[in-house]
Write a structure and sequence with these properties.
globular, 116 residues, mainly alpha
Length: 116
């Protein structure tokens, strides 16, 4: 077995999804101005891994066919750094004031479930 594909298998990464994710992350990086080399690398890596590990969640949740998986990986690669920033902001908001955050979160969940 090829050592490269073995590493991907161990990490649970499909090669076509990885390619779509890295291209999406590169597109995002090209569109982002003023990053230091270190921040650019962090942006690229976080966009890539956000895409790799969020793609199966999105594909499963929305019941997207396997043919659409690479497109989802690309799009998540493009917006991956924004996803990471959003999660960090939520976490930061929760750590500073957990009760108002939880109250608002529960309200949003309940109103979303009523709409469905």
């Amino acid at each position: 077995m090829n050592p490269d594909t073995e590493i991907l298998r161990i990490l649970g990464i499909k090669a076509p999804v990885a390619i779509a994710a890295i291209v999406g992350a590169l597109v995002s990086l090209i569109m982002t101005k003023g990053l230091t080399p270190i921040r650019a690398m962090i942006s690229l890596v976080s966009g890539f891994f956000s895409s790799i590990y969020c793609t199966p969640l999105i594909v499963s949740y929305f019941d997207i066919s396997s043919e659409g998986q690479n497109g989802i990986a690309f799009l998540l690669g493009v917006i991956g750094m924004n996803i990471v920033n959003g999660i960090y902001s939520l976490s930061n908001s929760f750590s500073h004031s957990p009760y108002p955050f939880l109250f608002k979160f529960i309200q949003n969940i309940l109103s979303w479930r009523k709409e469905k």
